[in-house]
Amino acid sequence: MLVPIREEDGVLLDLRYATADNLAGRPIFQRAVALLLPEARERLLHASRMAIALGYRLKVFDAFRPIEAQWVLWHAVEDKRFVSDPRLGGLHPRGAAVDLTLVEAASGRELPMGTAFDAVEEASAHGRTDIPVEDQRNRALLLGLMTAAGWDHYRLEWWHYQLPDARRYPALHASAVPDGPM
User: Fold this and answer.
1) Which residues are annotated as a binding site for Zn(2+)?
2) Where along the chain do its domains lie?
3) Bridge partners of 102?
4) What is the pLDDT of residue 180?
5) Which of 5, 43, 137, 180 is the most buried (most CB within 10 A)?
6) 94-126, pLDDT tens digit by residue?
7) Cβ(159)–Cβ(113) under 8 Å?
8) Spatial separation of the C-alpha atoms in residues 74 and 69, rounded to whole Å
9) Class assignment of domain 3-173?
10) Would residue 104 show up in a list of annotated catalytic residues for this protein?
């Protein structure tokens, strides 16, 4: 069962796939709602509390992504290293992955990370030393917070984190999104 993440939980939401500001160039979600498995939600909120203690907030770009939306991205992205094959389920369609960044709590400014969210390029990978040092530190801070909260990372995308055992959960379709207010 998927559960919502709300700004009242202490995280910021900028659900890019509910807008045209994404790799597909058009909204691919019918509803702007961030959902995760209960275990993933708890780990995200743990990371959020740690970030807040340091003067930051987490900003979520994507969480659960139905298989139907995964197909849209699959067709939109040429470099398949940056999008999971929907025939294999992916991790977002399981409700076990989240895409996010860090924001300064006081100013609301996103920390620079060397590339934009969803930048389909080599510079998006963890451990890059060819981006500004401040951006390397910001990526390391996000990685540290998420790892300390029990998340695993995808090495090619600084913004993507998943439960270490994410594949044990089934991939879900849009029908898994509950009707009504969240």
Assistant:
1) 92, 99, 160
2) 3-173
3) 58
4) 57
5) 5
6) 999 999 999 999 999 999 999 999 999 999 999
7) yes
8) 9
9) alpha beta
10) no
